[in-house]
Specification:
Elements lengths: L1 H19 L4 H11 L6 H12 L4 H26 L3 E2 L2 E2 L1 H5 L1 H19 L3 H23 L5 H26 L4 H28 L2 H4 L5 H4 L5 H4 L4 H19 L7 H13 L6
Antiparallel strand pairs: 1-2
Helix pairs in contact: 1-2, 1-3, 1-4, 2-6, 3-4, 3-8, 3-14, 4-6, 4-7, 4-8, 7-8, 8-9, 9-13, 13-14
């Protein structure tokens, strides 16, 4: 755990510095409540670990790692507004705490701070811009053209969740100055991890206790949101099996890269296995 904690601490320190630099004070307080209220920090950890696995140093990737976490948090603010969810990570969501207007402004502020961190590298800017297009298309299709089959659900999951995971891994590879083949391979790995993560989320929403989950359960059914369980006739157990298949495919993609740091690789492998058994 010490290995991961050092990397999370690097991200946390840079995240706090980025938030502290925000002006005016009111916006900084709102962003602080969104970003520093907790969270798994999975995406920034992937960015750092991929960079290390490919021969880079954690410090090489920390700005990109923080940037992708800011983008992720910006998307969560909007998700909670759309879903009318007043709870996030066991605390009030941004719109519930500050109102819709300030929450939207906070989301915009997060994106602005994120792109300032990506601006040093044209490839990073392109990767994140493409991910945000995918994310936006996913959000739009969920609202107005909901999937009616497992295949359509998978397209949505890749856009809505997989895209940011892919970007997180590709940013780590860019920070390590990897070649195009390697960037694509780690992107495939992370996208599949993200899809498996979303599938498991759907199962937890249908089956978990809200106190354990840290947010309201049953939201997918209540909001008529197209979760894997809602769209298909799969049982939660069968949905979990689909998630495991994505996890296995992620591990296969990861096995194709040339690795410089075996410890970082092991943690990336562990992540692909963990996302399908997590309880929150």
């Amino acid at each position: 755990m010490e290995y991961l904690e050092r990397r999370r601490s690097l991200v946390a320190e840079r995240l706090e510095a980025a938030v502290d630099a925000v002006e005016p004070d009111a916006l900084r307080e709102q962003i602080d409540s969104v970003v520093l209220a907790g969270g798994k920090r999975v995406r920034p950890t992937v960015t750092v670990l991929v960079c290390e696995a490919l021969g880079g140093e954690p410090e090489d990737a920390v700005d990109f790692a923080v940037g992708i976490e800011l983008v992720h948090n910006a998307s969560l603010v909007i998700d909670d507004i759309i879903d009318e969810s007043d709870l996030r990570r066991g605390s009030e969501s941004a719109w519930a705490a500050f109102g819709h207007g300030p929450a939207i402004i906070a989301s915009d502020g997060l994106l602005g701070e994120a792109f300032a961190l990506f601006s040093s590298d044209e490839r990073a800017m392109q990767v994140v811009a493409e991910a945000m297009v995918e994310l936006g298309e996913g959000e739009a299709s969920e609202l107005v053209e909901q999937p009616a089959s497992e295949e359509e659900y998978m397209t949505l999951a890749r856009r809505k969740t997989g895209a940011l995971f892919r970007a997180a891994a590709e940013l780590g590879a860019i920070a390590a100055d990897a070649d195009a083949y390697t960037i694509e391979a780690v992107g495939d790995y992370a996208e599949r991890v993200g899809v498996a993560f979303q599938m498991r989320d759907d199962v937890l929403d249908a089956t978990a206790d809200p106190e354990t989950l840290g947010k309201p359960a049953g939201q997918d059914a209540a909001m008529e949101r197209p979760s894997l369980v809602e769209v298909t006739d799969l049982t939660p157990e069968e949905a979990n099996e689909r998630a495991r298949e994505e996890s296995d495919a992620a591990l296969e993609a990861l096995s194709t890269i040339d690795v410089a740091d075996e410890a970082a690789l092991e943690y990336l492998e562990d992540l692909a296995k963990f996302v399908v058994v997590r309880e929150r």
